Amino acid sequence: MERTNHPRAPVLACRILWLALWSLAANGQPRAIDTTRSTMTIRVYKTGVLSVLGHDHEISAPVARGTVDVPGHTVELHIETGTLRVRDPKASDKDRQEIQTTMLGPEVLDERNYKQIDFQSTGAEGSGTGVWKVTGKLTLHGMTRPVSVEVREKDGHFAGACQLKITDFGIKPVKAAGGSISVKDEVRIEFDIELAR
Questions:
Q1: DSSP structure string for 113-170
Q2: Residue 128: is its pLDDT beyond 80?
Q3: Where are the domains of the chain?
């Protein structure tokens, strides 16, 4: 006698596969970050009566390592302080090098003593399709403070940003020209993350 497949077999197989995938997602399987495509950018802004003579700073570094648990909405990022680079497009090579030296030196980030910048999420709340408000702890300059990051996800790509005051992390804003030009206390930190394939 010839065997025939039950007409509901394909549907049942699809349901079993979907349940298996959902179970894996519910278990929160963290995925590694693609460190060749993931970066952190710090935007530092000028202030002061002669601020027109200065310029804003764009500083970036690759993410050294980290993981993202998409279903669990958790993320962990680690950046090596020494990999931060000044990208200011309007500055000369000489000015960029001077800013770089000051930034990594003992008066600002003190890279010799604080070699890593870390972010660890502590919670997340959805605020739309593919959008979350992620809360977490940022460790910078040896101090850990709570931060809130708005994160957007699209096709396995995550972009987030937060504002913070550098004085909250024990960093004094750099001043020049007798204090008539300085960096603002508040800076913007942006994360651009892709997951490893």
A1: T--EEEEEEEEEEE-STTEEEEEEEEEETTEEEEEEEEEEEETTEEEEEEEEEGGGGT
A2: no
A3: 29-194
